[in-house]
């Protein structure tokens, strides 16, 4: 009986081992995700760390299929002098703004954006990585535009061109050849873009915050860039540059949280961001939503370009 019992135990062990799914099968079905190495510790503190990539990640994925690196530096000359190898160029003033809108700097129409992305060889499955030479100012604006129009995988190179060059990494003057695609914009996300009517209505509603991302002199009306100087009544001024380090990277989550806490802005409030043309405001929107996890933040795209040039809207100085 002892030998029979031992035999039954051995059979049971073999059957149990065969019942365990093979690990490789599970790994093969799981989606492969790029690993961000250099800033993993800091980025993991953010609400959505996947939207930031570092220079190591970009270097490792320069020529990977399905990834499009887009340079949105301040001037075309910067791109022409040398850019990250394989990057295509987008002009933030002419390519990312609607020339037909009476308010300067307004977001592209769906048709205009579809034509642009198609020209860049981008389809809906493409991972789009934006970078610039201006502390991610134009990169985050481009990020916001694609998110407004529903593109899924959009990222920003933390530190941009400044950090890439500081690390002695290669630049190239060559313009890459890309195969155009047909990009049809999907359903847009109106919850991240505000109109002047919404901002005006919020002035009388408690718990709603207006964040002015411009310089203090613009806010007080000393630096006038529209017909009128000043700010939207009740707006809190927190200049967008306060959110980045000298090397162009974003400050840590703890530092950013402290900035907004000191300004009196809390996660449970609805926040309207604005600047002159919605560009700096998009940078603050990115920090609040993507890095700090605020769930109710809207970029007023018309910003002071629209508000300051009208005489029927209230202002403060």
What's a concise summary of this model?
The radius of gyration is 24 Å and the shape is globular. By secondary structure, the chain is of the alpha/beta class.
Features:
5-stranded parallel sheet; 10 strands; alpha/beta; 317 residues; Oxidized Rhodanese, domain 1; 2 domains; single chain
Set down the secondary structure blueprint.
Blueprint: H1 2-19, H2 23-29, H3 40-43, E1 52-53, H4 55-60, E2 67-71, H5 76-81, E3 88-89, H6 110-119, E4 127-131, H7 137-148, E5 154-157, H8 160-166, E6 193-194, H9 196-202, E7 208-212, H10 216-220, E8 236-237, H11 253-263, E9 270-274, H12 279-291, E10 297-300, H13 303-307
Parallel strand pairs: 1-5, 2-3, 2-4, 4-5, 6-10, 7-8, 7-9, 9-10
Percent range for β-strand residues = 5-15%
CATH architecture of the largest domain: 3-Layer(aba) Sandwich
Point out poorly predicted stretches. Answer: 1-42
For the record, the CATH class of the largest domain is Alpha Beta
Helix count, per DSSP? 13
How are the strands of the biggest sheet laid out side by side? Answer: 1-5-4-2-3
Mean pLDDT across all residues, rounded? 89
Shape: globular
Q: What class, by secondary structure content?
A: alpha/beta
How would you describe this structure to a colleague?
- By secondary structure, the chain is α/β, with parallel strands linked by helices.
- The chain has two domains: 40-188, 3-Layer(aba) Sandwich (Oxidized Rhodanese, domain 1), CATH 3.40.250; 191-307, Oxidized Rhodanese, domain 1 (3-Layer(aba) Sandwich).
- Helix content is 35%, strand content 11%.
- It has 13 helices and ten strands.
- It has helices at 2-19, 23-29, 40-43, 55-60, 76-81, 110-119, 137-148, 160-166, 196-202, 216-220, 253-263, 279-291, 303-307, and strands at residues 52-53, 67-71, 88-89, 127-131, 154-157, 193-194, 208-212, 236-237, 270-274, 297-300.
- The strands form two sheets. It has a five-stranded parallel sheet. The chain has a five-stranded parallel sheet with strand order 6-10-9-7-8.
- Helix 7 crosses helix 12.
- The longest helix has 18 residues, at 2-19.
- The relative contact order is 0.14.
- The model is unreliable at 1-42 (pLDDT under 50).
